[in-house]
Amino acid sequence: MSIASRLIIGLLFSAAATTASHAQSRSVRAEAYLRSFHDLDRFNGAAIIVDEGRVLFEGGFGLADIENQLAVEATSRFPIASLTQQFMAALILKLNEQDLLDLYAPIHSVINEYPLPNGKRITTHHLLTHTSGLPMVSNIPDSASALSPAEILALTWNEALQFEPGTQSAYSNSESVLLKWMVERVTGMPYGEALSLFVFDPVGLSDTGYEYGLTSTGTRAKGYTRQLMEYEPVQDSYSRLPYVDEILFSTVRDLRRWASVISEWEETPSPFLEQETLEQMLTPSPESYGYGFHIRHQSIGREDNVELIEHTEGIPGFSSFFRVFPKHHRLIVLLDNTASELSPIMEGLTNLLWGAEAEPPKPSIAQRILPIIESAGVAPAIERYRNWRQARPNEYDYSPNELMLLAEHFQNKDPTAAIEILEAQAEDTPEVPLIRFALAALYSKQGDTVRAISHVEAALAFSPGTPDLIMRIQELGGEPDPALTFPTISVELTELKRLTGEYRIDPVTLLTVELNDESLFARRSNESGFQLLPQSTTTFLLQGSKVQFIFDLVNGRAASVSILEGGGRVSFPRLPSC
Hints:
By secondary structure, this protein is α+β, with helices and mostly antiparallel strands. The chain has helices at 3-39, 84-97, 118-121, 124-128, 149-153, 173-187, 191-203, 252-263, 275-281, 343-353, 365-376, 378-391, 400-410, 415-428, 433-445, 449-460, 467-475, 493-497; strands spanning 45-51, 54-61, 63-65, 70-71, 78-79, 224-226, 231-233, 249-250, 294-300, 303-315, 318-325, 330-336, 501-506, 509-516, 519-524, 530-534, 539-542, 548-554, 557-565, 568-573.
């Protein structure tokens, strides 16, 4: 062998060794990163990571079944919540290929029972992209398990659409019911069988399907919620109601195989006859939603505009996150059975794949101050919490959920302590609705409906017009302030600019209305500003209050502003522009 040949071979081996070394390093870092979250009770589940088509990590952390001490493995089966939608979309596209369904034909062409005119206004495409405007199916009767799709949809099909089909996007479970009904109508078989025949079997997804149809020996993960010092099992944490919200089970291994169809990093059989069908599935709508996926671009490390295809969802006791980087043949799948927040883990692992720094998890501040409460009481603990949050902001996890966990720890054995904790948190973060809901529940349990209502109304002041909040106030026997019943809307920037300027309050005090990050803010002279939430193009709610600002327009510009509070109204003229 010549010297040149030996040199070339040596360089090839050196390059291969370097690549293998880098992959091994990334693998070790990825596993250590996942374990750091698990060690702090921030992740309990299965994960798979693929880098340039090769499996970088595959495995589990913690227990799939705490009671029986069964470990999480790569073959453990998890309910995957709305990740289910990508398989439904694949089935619909497959039937479209076979001319059994037309994506752009009105649903009335398949389901002629669906009443007009909506049956001719809504298409299959609208259903797949959540742009149908159909209302949610709610108040489902106990007998729903015996209902046909027609009987389920009849609960809402005479209601008005939420918006004109194709003009907005909002999820509705009515869409899933209709799609499943359409599949059964054109195939003549149960939806689950059609899904297996046309999607799962061709791809080889042997561990994916509805629970009753799986024969795999892999462990089925049970769902839990993380309490402050333990995990609590969740009973029946997902619905089994036919058509409404049945949930598929899958494994990280099967989801890796499915991702290889999307990213084409290996010769995995596709359910589709034509490449154009896969491209159609992965083409984003104006709302960045494809058929069953969110499709967007993100800067990662030193690389800009990286395309990613993803979906994430949670149900009681479970959370899941699926992210593919198709042009890089990379994948991250996280399946968790303790309802962990997976976004920080996903972003950290994404950075690791690009060689960037990943933010490590932080210890629980709630666990840190629990002993202080037990020994000295709530007030000293909250004082310590606030001091640490200011002096050591990066040392602990100070997210709102932390003090929620702390309050839940005391809510049964010492509800007064739980209220004291939550009141302190509401003072620090008044905009978080979960805190207000928790306080309302505790006060209501003690018979103090006045305080219960006040906290729900405080949440409504940051999210005006929210139906759940309005309903909760009414359930407690109250009525929300009229100013809080109007929801916020989107207002064009040109409309907002017409309202900016200075308004005279008194001879020495001005009210300045200005734009900041395309939102409107108001501030008095020498004071901080507060955001104005648009309820119409001229009516705004002062965020966190019951105060409305109503602008009076003359010749297309604001001439004055009226401030309404508690039935009173005062008006201030706008000063001429310089």
